[in-house]
Amino acid sequence: MLLKPMEPFGLALKEFYQGNKNAKVIFYRDDGIKEDHYVANYFRTEEEFTFLEKHAISLCKGKILDIGAGVGPHALKLQNLGLTVLAIDISSKACKIMKKRGVLNVKHGSVYDVKNEKFDTILLLGRSIGFVEDLQGLRTFLEHCKNLLKSDGYILMDSLDVRTTTNPDHLAYHKRNLQLDHYFGERGICRT
Known about the structure:
Distance between the termini: 12 Å
Shape: globular
CATH superfamily of one domain: Vaccinia Virus protein VP39
């Protein structure tokens, strides 16, 4: 059976929401490394947000597009501040959970499905920018954002500097990617 993109992630979110506090997704990197990713973090409260998340939320203004919203922790906080938020996620299960948690404006789909709307802020937290995969994907995304942002609008996102790792498996992966003419942080996609 072929699963849709992010469906395993959505199933893990659903499991957690229904009470399995050990729900996880297992990621297989394109070099064969396997990593367990527990989803409890996606359900944290605003008190548990990092300093960076809190700061990003404080910078949000006007109408906001929350891309890769997951189960909606940031959208909920922004709504509580009285801001208008469109929370979008590619996982249908995540979208259903967002609605149950009280996110008012939820869209199931990709950011590329959003058209004919203008936003003051585009928000990508939790390293959601990873969906672009590579530099060309980033260019495509930024070009699309030109059509979504108001003239004085801006994009707020976080990421991870993978160069700071000391994990030998990750260091070997980075070396391999450089030899394959990939840049640090380019996401390897495992296809079957």
